[in-house]
Amino acid sequence: MTIERWQRVSEWPMIVAAVVFLAAYSVQVIADLPESANLLPDDLVWVAWAVFLIDYAVKLWLAPSRGRWFVRHLHELFILALPALRPLRLLRVVTILNVFHSRAGAALRGKLLAYVLGSSAMLVYCGALATLDSEQNDPNANIRSIGDALWWAVTTMTTVGYGDRYPVTAVGRFAAVGLMLTGIAVLGVVTGSIASWIVDAVARQTARQTAAAVEEAVEAIDEPLEEQMRALVEQVARLSAALEARNLKDPGRLEA
Question: C or N: which end of the chain has fewer Cβ atoms within 10 Å?
Answer without folding.
Answer: C
